[in-house]
Specification:
By secondary structure, the protein is α/β, with parallel strands linked by helices. It has a single domain, classed as Phosphotransferase system, sorbose subfamily IIB component (Fructose Permease), CATH 3.40.35. The protein has 6 helices and 9 strands, in the order βαβααβαβαβββαββ. Helix 5 packs parallel to helix 6.
Length: 161
């Protein structure tokens, strides 16, 4: 059974902040990216794997493979940092059986219909509704860009769109 050190939603997935800060903070020995589109794209998968430090394993899997790995052996050995690109995929994994206890929102990008709810982190109405569902289901949802930032609880952000 792997120790899950962090479950994060970050539309950029593996980037400087994750490599330089979160890997150091969590001491993760592997990164698991859960994204069905990316799992089917060997070129982009290789780019993310090349962005991962040499001493850290990187796996890119679709939702069903991820949930099956959880059910089989709780993601194997080591310390896992799990990355989702979007809230919808996270909720799907949770509904399919991944026992999510805490979820960190790191970044969801900007765009039409999105509102900055904490620092530069944005939500749209759909994201907010899904996070409410997770929170109501007992998942601790919080916003935090870097380890130096204070966690902001989901319940304390302004969701008036």
């Amino acid at each position: 059974m792997a120790k899950i050190s962090l479950v994060r939603v970050d539309f950029r997935l593996i980037h400087g902040q994750v490599v330089a800060k979160w890997l150091k903070q969590t001491q993760a020995t592997k990164i698991i990216i859960v994204n069905s589109t990316l799992a089917k794209d060997p070129t982009m998968s290789n780019i993310y794997k090349m962005a991962t430090p040499a001493n850290v394993k990187c796996s890119i899997v679709d939702i069903d493979t991820f949930v099956a790995a959880w059910e089989k052996n709780q993601l194997g050995e080591g310390i896992a940092l799990i990355l989702f690109k979007d809230v919808g995929t996270t909720v799907q994994a949770w509904k399919k059986g991944f026992p999510l206890e805490q979820l960190q929102i790191g970044g969801l990008g900007a765009g039409p219909g999105r509102k900055a709810v904490y620092q530069n982190m944005t939500l749209n109405k759909e994201d907010a509704a899904m996070l409410k569902e997770l929170s109501g289901g007992g998942v601790k949802v919080f916003f935090q860009a870097t380890p130096e930032d204070k966690q902001m609880e989901f319940e304390k952000v302004d969701l008036n769109f």
